[in-house]
Write a structure and sequence with these properties.
Elements: E1 3-7, H1 12-23, E2 29-32, H2 45-50, E3 58-61, E4 64-67, H3 69-79, H4 90-106, H5 113-123, H6 127-152, H7 164-178, H8 187-196, H9 200-205
Parallel strand pairs: 1-2
Antiparallel strand pairs: 1-3, 3-4
Helix pairs in contact: 1-3, 1-7, 4-6, 4-7, 7-8
Length: 216
């Protein structure tokens, strides 16, 4: 099955999927969709046909698109179960999904580009205040996540096995730095980041390693 990932180098949701593809040893091609150029290529007709929500990533399976990163991750887990990105018991799987959704639903959407643009366009909020607003939501979510990791984490967010929670955590730490979050308040999260950064799959998925990366 041919896999083609439509992504943007700094999209945290695309990053999650790159991590899953790499960890499962799957070959895929990448098509860049620039989120800012020409008003955002995600708003143009070819991408809207694949994903009416005009978001990234989209994983093409031959000619069939799957959108929404968590749906893609669950598809990959079901279709390519080894190595598994979920624990073995239902309760532990629920805890991992709780951590992943804390980021996916509770942090990332509030600080993404579309929200920031609307804060400026519709509410006249200057960019520094937009960033401060988003920073506060990241900190709110990390306060909760750090407590969960202290309860259930090991070398990874949940125990010592890489799971969907780690795939969401690592990109969100990158975003947190962009918004000047003081990560010294979350030592368990940064310790996991240090541990996982040594793995080739994580290095290859980093934004700086992507074909459409630009210097910042």
């Amino acid at each position: 099955m041919a896999l083609v990932l439509h992504s943007y180098w700094r999209s945290s949701c695309s990053w999650r999927v790159r991590l899953a593809l790499n960890l499962k040893g799957l070959s895929y091609d990448t098509v860049s969709v620039h989120l800012v150029k020409d008003g955002g290529e995600q708003h143009q007709a070819p991408h809207r046909q694949m994903n009416p929500m005009r978001e990234l990533p989209v994983l093409m399976l031959n000619d069939q698109p799957i959108a929404q990163s968590m749906a893609i991750l669950e598809f990959l887990e079901e279709s390519y179960p080894e190595p598994s990105l979920l624990p073995s018991t239902p309760l532990d799987r629920a805890r991992v999904r709780q951590m992943a959704e804390l980021i996916n639903s509770g942090i990332q959407p509030i600080q993404n580009l579309r929200v920031m643009q609307r804060l400026g366009r519709d509410y006249d909020l200057p960019k520094p205040e937009q960033a401060q607003w988003s920073k506060g939501w990241i900190e709110f979510g990390f306060d909760a996540l750090h407590r969960l990791v202290e309860q259930h984490g090991g070398r990874c967010a949940f125990g010592d096995q890489v799971t969907l929670a780690d795939l969401c955590l690592i990109p969100q730490l990158y975003n947190a730095r962009r918004f000047a979050v003081d990560l010294s308040a979350y030592p368990r999260l940064t310790a996991i980041e240090d541990e996982l950064s040594r793995l080739p799959a994580f290095h290859a998925a980093h934004p700086d390693q992507q074909p459409d990366a630009v210097s910042t």
